[in-house]
């Protein structure tokens, strides 16, 4: 294989010399030294066991064998150039399908608007979006990108940190009127809570203050695995709920929900953009990824995820 690969360079050197009629001009065209080009042609003749060029002090001339070989060298060069043009055209034309997976609530709130904005710029790119809590195998299932809340991304994936998902403990004004002020984690543990069954240890709520974590175990008659349903339950007074800040910011601003346990924060969870490790990413994947990264940098979203 090494010999064949080296022969390509030798054939290109020979064809350039034959077409320009000069080792000097061929060297200039190829960006090589004259001595190196001469060595390439001599090595080619030695490998083939034939003379391709008549060399005199005044001029170069093709032998009959050289003319035959030159025709094949030109065909080879033209084929390679055609292949390069075809690959270049395919990579510069942004089209095709991007497959992405993201958490249900996050994707539902943010991604449709982002994808619509992206497709205004790249209308030939289709987006296949999976919204679920399932942790898909990106490589085995053919996903290009994933948004994922995780403390430790998989080592075999390329991980780009996007920020953190901040959660808040909230309750309705009516619930607080009935159960009194809830200003410590222990008081929250003593009242009904809406349990989010997406968490592995769903009754453990870790609160943080001053770098110190205090985890309490909560309980309640309602256990739900869908964030919008948890929010709705909190709004109608079913109990204290832990929800992403981005989901309840408007409710907090309107007074429909109130934060409890002032001075304490729930542990934030890092958010990553993940993708398989591939040497050559399709252009459609690269432009979608870069668009998403820029979208996260907008001030109104940066505020939510820092």
Automatic annotation (TrEMBL):
CDD domains: PBP2_CrgA_like. The keyword Protease does not apply. Keywords: DNA-binding, Transcription, Transcription regulation. It holds the Pfam family HTH_1. GO terms for molecular function: DNA-binding transcription factor activity; sequence-specific DNA binding. This is LysR family transcriptional regulator. Gene3D superfamilies: 3.40.190.290, Winged helix-like DNA-binding domain superfamily/Winged helix DNA-binding domain (1.10.10.10). Residues 13-63 form the HTH lysR-type domain. GO terms for biological process: DNA-templated transcription. Belongs to the LysR transcriptional regulatory family. PROSITE patterns: HTH_LYSR (PS50931).
């Amino acid at each position: 294989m090494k010999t064949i690969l080296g022969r390509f360079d030798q054939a290109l050197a020979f064809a350039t010399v034959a077409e320009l009629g000069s080792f000097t001009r061929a060297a200039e065209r190829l960006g090589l030294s004259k001595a190196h080009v001469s060595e390439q042609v001599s090595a080619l003749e030695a490998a083939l066991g034939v003379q391709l060029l008549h060399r005199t002090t005044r001029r170069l001339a093709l032998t009959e064998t050289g003319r035959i070989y030159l025709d094949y060298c030109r065909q080879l060069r033209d084929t390679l150039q055609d292949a390069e043009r075809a690959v270049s055209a395919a990579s510069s034309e942004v089209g095709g399908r991007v497959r992405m997976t993201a958490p249900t609530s996050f994707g539902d709130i943010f991604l449709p608007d982002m994808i619509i904005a992206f497709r205004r710029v790249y209308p030939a790119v289709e987006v296949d979006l999976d919204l679920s809590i399932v942790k898909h195998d990106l490589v085995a299932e053919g996903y290009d990108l994933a948004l994922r809340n995780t403390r430790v991304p998989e080592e075999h994936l390329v991980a780009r940190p996007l920020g953190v998902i901040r959660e808040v403990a909230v309750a309705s004004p009516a619930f607080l009127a009935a159960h009194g002020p809830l200003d410590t984690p222990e008081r929250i543990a003593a009242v009904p809570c809406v349990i989010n069954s997406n968490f592995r240890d769903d009754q453990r709520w870790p609160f943080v203050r001053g770098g110190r974590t205090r985890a309490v175990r909560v309980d309640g008659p309602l256990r739900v695995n869908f964030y919008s349903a948890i929010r709705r339950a909190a709004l109608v007074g079913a109990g204290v709920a832990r929800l992403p800040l981005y989901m309840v910011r408007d409710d907090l601003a309107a007074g429909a929900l109130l934060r409890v346990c002032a001075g304490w924060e729930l542990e934030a969870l890092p958010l990553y953009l993940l993708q398989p490790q591939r040497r050559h990413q399709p252009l459609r994947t690269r432009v979608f990824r870069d668009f998403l990264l820029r979208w996260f940098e907008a001030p109104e979203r940066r505020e939510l995820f820092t």
